[in-house]
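User: Hi! Is it possible to get a structure for several chains at once, not just one? Here's what I have:
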Amino acid sequence: MDGERETLLEVRNLRTYFHTPVGVVKAVDDVSFLVRRGEALAVVGESGCGKTVTALSVMRLVPDPPGKIEGGEVVFEGRDLLRLSDAEMRRVRGNHIGMIFQDPMTSLNPVFRVGDQIREAVQVHLGLSRKDARERAIQLMEMAEIPQARERYRMYPHEFSGGMRQRAMIAMALSCEPKLLIADEPSTALDVTIQAQIMELLGRLRKEIGLSVMLITHDLGVVAGVAETVLVMYAGKVVEYAGVDDVYYRSKHPYAWSLMRSVPRLDEKKERLLTIGGSPPSLIDLPPGCSFSPRCPFAQEICREEEPPLVEVEKGHLSACHFAGDFESRAAEVLGT
Amino acid sequence: MSGNDGFLLEARGLVKHFPLGKGLILSRLGGTVKAVDDVTLEVREGQTLGLVGESGCGKSTLARLILRLVKADKGEVFFEGRDILKLPHREMKAVRRSMQIIFQDPYASLNPRMSVGAIIMEPMVIHGEGSRDERRKRAMELLSLVGLQPEHFSRYPHEFSGGQRQRIGVARALALRPRLIICDEPVSALDVSIQAQVLNLLKELQERFRLTYIFVAHDLSVVRYVSDEVAVMYLGKIVERAVHDELYGHPMHPYTLALLSAVPVPDPRKERERRRIILEGDVPSPINPPPGCRFHTRCWKKQEICEQVEPAMEEKAPGHLVACHFPET
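Assistant: Yes, the chains can be modeled jointly so their relative placement is included. Here is the combined structure:
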């Protein structure tokens, strides 16, 4: 985290709840973070931890009802997006913030040609003529490294492979030169060689057009290759927030720490993986105190009683653990035994 | 692990082509999907063979051919010394006790209307094993074996998380004390923190009961963790096969090399230093796979011969087979 680059997006104390018949689900509960210009932030966590809802809240795309943004601020280039009118927000989406999703097939309309769908986005947002918009769409497809873009313009989504569809989505998201791209599990549904292509493309776009990226993923390998800063979420809350090296090598939260050690790695053969017992809690029925305490190998009495606040343990390194201060030495003891 | 003995399973020249549609029009087009094309492999008793490849490479079809869940067009599968593809149904049923499968999706592979106990006991009922009480007792044993509680016996699948459901699937697979279990992407639908639990469980069970696994997966990191030997598939063919350290340490086939280099490692420093081989384009369609070497359309080492002559599987180093005209050395 360097202090030089200007802040592009700042989310403060965001709370998004879902009101369901069985109770209130606090999908995002007091989440704060920021994205600087050109930065790549990864939001990491398992399914149901609130990472996607966080992204949707920034875009104000949370289905309402049952979801509702209950509080907080989403400041993008100095404006609080939560206070904009629907019409103003539509202009921000697409024009300033683009978003791509895990499954590109659900985001493309199967009965229209891929190129026309991109052209439409260009036409709506940039106000170009049909012909100019078409040329621009082809350019965008080339930028997203779709080979033979001119010929592919006329194809339908089902004629595209998964990787090509994701490229088409990226082309569409780039149509209005956004400053921030929110990518929600963009490569999860893709094969690993295609995933590498897409990640390479995102990296290139960051360099070439200074795009900021907010990457939502559960894949710790992808994060290591792409992100500069990492936000680790668990049960709707931020549990650790720091530079990527700090989180990977000097983690100060038992969840992030254990997660790193529970994934099989290509570069080493382990005899046994460390496991995290149990499963993530239901957001309707959270345990008292720290939500991770029932699964935490280091939990003490205080963890089951008091919820730990997110504090800056070291410069630029935030952790929500009662024992964040000396977590590393405690963890070392466990590893030693 | 010496010589050629100790194989629990040997598959020779397995072929499966799916005709494209049976209707008037589609059948006239005459295409076939060459899902599995002349595959040979062996699995040693008590070991794990990892079968990796991208979607559509034929790895799941191969697994099903071995279990005879899909009928092979050609080839032989020797299990415990007998070619099971030629066995009459009655004898095949007996063999099936020794071969089980764990599926990818723990939501789709458990009948929501059956209690957990009934699910685990079903294989025993089908094979007429034990009395009612014995089956019940065995099911209880199995529950504790896979890390579930006795009170889970009368619950239903929807009451369980993905990881627990996969444990139920494992218990069902173990019910008849099989020797071979095919694990078809058993953890890819699970959350990261749950994957490790299930992988460790599978390893513990293997050591305890000397189980043999064929582990089908697209995730090379997971395969590295569980496998003794690894086979890499591309478009219906095995392109490289070796003991695990050899394959990960000295990959010889360009596809394996590219595949390994594409897998991200959860280590930011290593990621920054890594040089990736980014393959161009997509996997070609298995309907009309490229002539010669199937990988030549994406291969950076391609020569003329690769477009014309299909490379044979050859042993280039002890226990290391590769099908490439210009393998890495």
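Chain A touches chain B through 47 residues (CB under 8 Å). The longest helix of chain A spans residues 192-209.

User: Great, thank you!
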